[in-house]
Amino acid sequence: MTSAASARRTQCEECAGPLPLMARADARYCGATCRKRASRARIAAEQERVAGEQASRIPAELTSRPRWVRYSSRKVPLRTDGRFASVQDPSSWSDFQAAAGAQAGEGVGFVLTAGDGIVVVDLDHAVEDGRVLPWAQAIVDRLPATYMERGRSGSGLHLWFRGAVPHGRRVRRGEVAVEVYSDRRYIIVGDRVSGTPLELAELPDAAGLVASL
């Protein structure tokens, strides 16, 4: 008897039942049902691994809140099942684990709500050839060190703080492009900027910052 024959499986890897007598030598499962079940388990395990890796790069202050959505290629917020989500409908949001593990859309986003006291300063077109542009760096330098990540395009920066603003604001002046929000917006969460804290700093005078832009 050859070593290949002696090593041939006799049990299904999924249910531990016997393999069919006429099964191929490299067969692992007793049938389509077990094969599909094993495939779903592998996909779920991979989703859990990816979600765990993402969570390690995002502050717990965010991942602990059920404010997560997916987003489409057109930046439309989605539920985990692919249906449209709304920043005004908490029932369309999910916890981080569910959102990070879902397949719908392109990635994850966080919904800002007034009660959470989280404010985001969004610097558009702030990075060019891997370097933060001077106007954007001047704003970053004025602010406390905090969790910062790149937007989906790779050219924007999101700075996350504990604080609030009474109304969102959008500033466009020359090359300066800044948005500040703390309510009824969702922010696409990208890659953490290396070296920035894995926590949110206090921004006690967020309204004053907005007024000074």
Task: Summarize the entry for a quick read.
The chain has helices at 3-6, 32-55, 60-63, 96-101, 134-142, 206-212, and strands at residues 68-71, 77-78, 107-112, 118-123, 127-128, 131-132, 148-150, 157-162, 169-173, 176-181, 185-188, 201-202. By secondary structure, the chain is α+β, with helices and mostly antiparallel strands.
Task: Explain the overall architecture.
The chain has helices spanning 3-6, 32-55, 60-63, 96-101, 134-142, 206-212, and strands at 68-71, 77-78, 107-112, 118-123, 127-128, 131-132, 148-150, 157-162, 169-173, 176-181, 185-188, 201-202. With 213 residues, the protein is α+β, with helices and mostly antiparallel strands. Strands 4, 7, 8, 9, 10 and 12 form a six-stranded mixed sheet that branches. Strands 2-1-3-11 form a four-stranded antiparallel sheet. It has a two-stranded antiparallel ribbon with strand order 5-6. Strand 1 and strand 2 form a beta hairpin. The relative contact order is 0.14. Mean pLDDT is 88; it is low at 1-6.
